[in-house]
Amino acid sequence: MNQQAIISQTADMLKEKFSDESSGHDWWHIFRVWKNAITIGKKEGANLYVVELAALLHDIADYKFHDGDEKIGGEVSKQWMQEVGVDSETIEAVVDIVNNVSFKGGKNAKKMQSIEGQAVQDADRLDAIGAIGIARCFAYGGYKGNEMYNPDKEPNLNMSKEEYKTQKGTQINHFYEKLLLLKDLMNTKTGKEMANARHDYMLNYLDEFYSEWKGEK
Ligand code: NI
C-alpha cells in the first residue's frame, strides 16, 4: 500500500472505532486534529506522513480497551501500523508521539522533541480553543450537568488534580482555568499564530457573553 492508502485506511479504522464515542474524544475530534496537524506540519516543514499517522492515532488509548496503561496507545498504534505495512522508522517516530501526547502528566509532561510531535500536540490543543473549543466546552458541561455560568462562583486557578476531576465548576470558569492558558503552551510558530487568533475570538466571546448576561445588549 502506498502512503496515501495507508493514511486513508487508518482514518477509516478510527472513524469506525470512535463512531459511538460520545465524550469529547469522538471521531470528529480526531478528524479536526488531523486537519490542524496537516496545516501546521506543512508550514513547519515536518514529515507529513509521520504527522498524519500520529495525529490520527493520538487518542487511540482513549478507546475502550484502555485500562490505565500509559503505553497502551503506542502499542495499539504499533500493531496497527505493522498490519498495514508502515516502515519501521515511521512506526518508531509515530509511537513516540502517541505515547507522549496521550500522557496526561499535566505540568510535568515532557516537551515534545520532534517537530512532528510538536505539530500534533499543538493541533490537539488547538481543538480545545476558538469556536470549536467553546462548543466543546459547553457540550461537555451539559454532559457533566455543570452550570454554564454563575457570577457568584470565582474561577479556581490553583486546582489540584483531584479537584479538577471532581469539582462542579462552571463552564465559563473553565475558560480561565484552562482554555485561556493554552495559547502559551504552543510549541510551533504556526501553532502559536493559530492559537492567538482563536484566543482573541474567545475573549470577544466572553465580552459578548457578559454584556448579554447583564442585559446590556
Ligand atoms: Ni486529542
TrEMBL record:
CDD domains: HDc (cd00077). InterPro entries: HD/PDEase_dom, HD_domain. Gene3D superfamilies: 1.20.58.1910, HD-domain/PDEase-like (1.10.472.50). Residues 26-129 form the HD domain. It comes from the Bacteria. This is HD domain-containing protein. It comes from Candidatus Dojkabacteria bacterium.
